[in-house]
Amino acid sequence: MTILEKIIAHKQMEVDKLLKEARLFDMSKQSVPFKNRVTTSNEVQIISEIKRSSPSKGDINTEVHPVTLAKQYEAYGAVAISVLTDTVFFKGSMKDLQAVAEVVQIPVLCKDFIIHTVQIDQAKAAGASIILLIAAALSKQKLHELYQYATEKGLEVICEVHQMEELEAILELDPAIIGINNRNLKTFEVDLQTTVKLASHIKNKNTLIISESGISTRSDALLARDAGAEALLIGETLMRSTNLFETYHTLKVSKVRRMHDAR
Ligand SMILES: O=C(O)c1ccccc1NCC(=O)[C@H](O)[C@H](O)COP(=O)(O)O
User: Fold this and answer.
1) ipTM confidence
2) Which of 36, 72, 157, 184 would you label with 6, given CA atoms 20 to 30 Å apart?
3) Could you give the number of structural domains in the chain?
4) Which intervals hold domain Indole-3-glycerol phosphate synthase (predicted)?
5) Is residue 50 part of a domain?
6) Residue 113 belongs to a domain
7) Residue 59 backbone phi and psi in degrees, to 5
8) Pocket of ligand 1 (CB under 6 A)
């Protein structure tokens, strides 16, 4: 069993529990716009992640206080905050997301493994403005169904791909936002060339491309930018940073190529 299969099996149990509880979720919270903030900016934007622990790296920063860190991320110019809400594999929670969404003005991404509409309701009620749908974890039909449902609820959706076949499946949806994950969720191998390769097949210029995972240096940011990414999803590098001001300064690049940008 791959780690992704293990995570999904566990998610199914969580979903069954949620459905059994038959909770009513408050779906009235207003979403904070995301895509437009990215596309209208002159800089490649950073989606900053709260990530205590991960299957590939183990504990990264378990001392972190999500609210304090989220406020710092916002102050340093994050365009959105990604909160890993999975507890078993990432030591996050929906409570983290709710606490973060209550204190920041920028959109919050529910970074989880969504396989059922009830999780979308839960994320929206907790204050998420964006959700993630992972192509590797969903059939094409399920992906389309969940995408439709989330957009009807006023959420923005990042459709995440890692392989060409996944990209082909989601291109049929012509999604507004595609996240290219440089990490293979089955082997944990990280390769930024994934962004370069897959972005070249996204022909719709209105599609926002996000490069996700393994971004730690300015040259990584420039590589993703040159491949067409307008935003970067960064977790570990920010979680391990001892000087967030410096780290943001290093990773924030202009959308326009400059002379001194040579990688
Ligand atoms: O990060 C992992 O080990 C992982 C394992 C299995 C499924 C998902 C995983 N990560 C989720 C992410 O996509 C990343 O947290 C996100 O892109 C940020 O990555 P990084 O900047 O490398 O921390």
Assistant:
1) 0.98
2) 157
3) 1
4) 4-249
5) yes
6) yes
7) -70, 130
8) 3, 49, 51, 54-57, 181, 183, 185, 188, 212-215, 233-237
For residue range 21-49, list pLDDT tens digits in order.
Answer: 988 999 999 999 999 999 999 999 999 99
In a domain, 261, yes or no: no
Residue 221: give its domain's CATH number: 3.20.20.70
- In sign, the C-alpha dihedral spanning 220, 163, 227, 133 is negative
Q: How far is residue 93's CA from residue 223's CA, in Å, rounded to a whole number?
A: 32
Position 45 in a domain: yes
pLDDT tens for 140-189 read: 999 999 999 999 999 999 999 999 999 999 999 999 999 999 999 989 99
Give CA 209 to chain center in angstroms: 12
Residues facing residue 234 across a β-bridge: 48
Q: Could you tell me the distance, in angstroms and rounded to a whole number, from the CA of residue 54 to the centre of ligand 1?
A: 7
Contacts of 125 (CB under 8 A, 6+ apart): 25, 26, 27, 29
Looking at ligand 1, which residue's alpha carbon is closest to its atom 1?
Answer: 54
Tokens linked to 140 = 């094409």
